[in-house]
Amino acid sequence: MADKKQFVVIGLGRFGGSVCKELIKLGNEVLAMDMDEQKVNDYARYATHAVVGDSTDESTLRSLGVRNFENVVVAIGDNIQASILTTLLLKEMGVNNVCVKARNYYHHKVLEKIGADKVVHPETDMGKRIAQQMSDENVIDYIELSEEYSIVELIATAKLEGKTLIKLNVRARFGVTILAIKKGDNIDISPSPDYQIGKGDLLIVIGHNEDIKRFEDQVM
Ligand code: ADP
């Protein structure tokens, strides 16, 4: 597992709350902050430290030592002004990696301009992901690497049963690479060319979206 890191999560709504819990689950330390005392109480048992505070107040951020953290997640929902001001303060303090939840396109643009390192749209991103998964019954999971490239987890159909990777020759035929194969609980991260695929194996495939589609259409 990766080294333990220290995070600040600002805003403990549904998104920030879920980021906080998952970071802790992954073994990291989290300073959770919200101006709503009730939220802070709710998260006190998950976060390493949970504090009540307004992140648009520079002296609060300073007294909490936020500048010493490498990673901060700004998960302020509706208050775009507070989200922008918080991001600005964090970047001015020299926080290296600031990830911010954006409400809309304009918010996103401003965040980028003032130096946010990552801007996310959880609802739209998740919507896309769910649509991808649901519109294709072979797709179990999907990670968008860029507009054009993805990693997908495909479930091997009966058509693939017994075929070896060398016979499928997917890299030459489709330009995609099978990174790993999951069979039950086992994962083989460098499957050998003579590995025989079984029905139900999960193939983790990386490539251009169009190439992955061609691979699925012709082979799966
Ligand atoms: P979500 O859509 O992820 O559920 P919410 O809008 O419900 O987001 O949650 C945002 C959280 O951010 C709220 O708990 C709110 O109290 C908190 N918040 C808003 N502004 C600030 C601020 N300036 N400082 C700290 N927390 C804030």
Task: Describe this entry's structure for a reader.
- It comes from Evansella tamaricis.
- Pfam families: TrkA_C, TrkA_N.
- Residues 4-120 form the RCK N-terminal domain.
- Residues 137-220 form the RCK C-terminal domain.
- This is TrkA family potassium uptake protein.
- With 220 residues, this protein is an alpha/beta fold.
- The chain folds into 2 domains: 6-122, NAD(P)-binding Rossmann-like Domain (Rossmann fold); 129-219, Regulator of K+ conductance, C-terminal domain (Alpha-Beta Plaits, 2-Layer Sandwich).
- Helices cover 37% and strands 26% of the residues.
- The chain is built from 9 helices and 11 strands.
- The protein has helices spanning 14-25, 37-43, 58-63, 80-93, 105-113, 122-135, 165-168, 170-174, 209-219; strands spanning 6-10, 29-34, 49-52, 71-74, 97-101, 118-120, 139-144, 149-155, 177-183, 186-188, 202-208.
- The chain has a 6-stranded parallel beta sheet, sandwiched between helices.
- β9 (177-183) and β10 form a beta hairpin.
- The longest helix has 14 residues, at 80-93.
- It starts with 5 loop residues before the first strand and ends with a helix.
- The mean pLDDT is 93.
- Bound molecules: adenosine-5'-diphosphate.
- Adenosine-5'-diphosphate (ADP) binds next to α1 and β2.
